[in-house]
Amino acid sequence: MNHELNGLIESWPQYLTAAVLVMVRLSGLMVFAPVFSSSAIAPRIKVGFVVAMTFLLAPAITAIPGARAVLDTQAILGELGVGLVFGLSLMLLNEALTFAGTLLGLQFSFSLVNLFDPNSMIETAVLGQMLSWLGVLVIIGSGLHRSLLAVMVHSFSVAPVGQAVMEAKTGAALAMMAGGIFLAGVQLAAPVMAAALAVEVTVALVARLSPQLPAMVVSIPLKTVVSYVVLIGSLAVWPGWIERHFTALLDAAAKMLVRA
Predict the structure, then answer these.
(1) How many of the other CB atoms lie within 10 Å of CB of 165?
(2) Nearest to 160 by CA among 71, 258, 244
């Protein structure tokens, strides 16, 4: 009994060091990842969640082969980098939805209707915020937030604590993923944009045949109504797209992990 107690006392500094590194890695989720970074969650709840996860993971993580529980610059920057890679990668989903909402707002003639986003602390298009909330609902409803935590826990076996490093190619990969925001936003908004364009072309052709037709008065409400109908119809496929895109971003972030 005394031998086990002495061993526990001797290994306590190692557990504490590993706990600090685990906390640093998990902090990236609380800052950038969807759902976890929401300002609707009180900071004390986020802190309590990170502390609880750290308390549960630290003893098991120190037993992983290759773990290096040392508080030095390399270990801290490596753990911080892993957390930021996961957080920033998944944040791209919310940015794609916001960009799609901005494009849709232009088609709906809502370009001047903006709301203050408490998460980004900037004014965003009203449709962009609606789609961001839809993304959060899909993530929670499909249990993707649990998948994120599972992948985050698995990352400690791929890149043991204290052994993770961030290379230059990681930043280049994140930049390429960020470039996909514009393509994803255009893909989501494409049906509505095509419908609005078809309405404008049709009204323009009719106005050429009948000059007395008030084209400006007719085109705006007609384009808005048609865009609403197409948007409501296309929303049926959005949850599946959000799930696939979230999973793809999560897999891409996991592949960026590099062990020293």
Answers:
(1) 16
(2) 258
Contact 97, 188 (CB under 8 A): yes
Q: Report how far residue 43's alpha carbon sits from residue 48's, in angstroms, rounded to the nearest whole number.
A: 9
Distance CA 155, CA 61 (A): 11
Cross-strand partners of 116: 123
- pLDDT by residue (tens digit) across 93-144? 888 888 888 888 777 766 666 655 555 566 666 777 788 888 888 888 888 8
The pLDDT value recorded for residue 4 is 43
User: Please, where are the H alpha helices in the chain?
Assistant: 2-32, 43-61, 73-107, 126-141, 144-158, 168-209, 215-234, 238-255
d(CA 129, CA 114): 9
Contact 131, 234 (CB under 8 A): no
Check: pTM over 0.70? Answer yes or no. Answer: yes
Q: Which residues contact residue 220 at a Cβ distance below 8 angstroms, ignoring those fewer than 6 apart?
A: 109
Residue range 209-235: average pLDDT?
78
Those residues with Cβ within 8 angstroms of residue 195's Cβ, 6 or more apart along the chain or in another chain: 226, 227, 229, 230
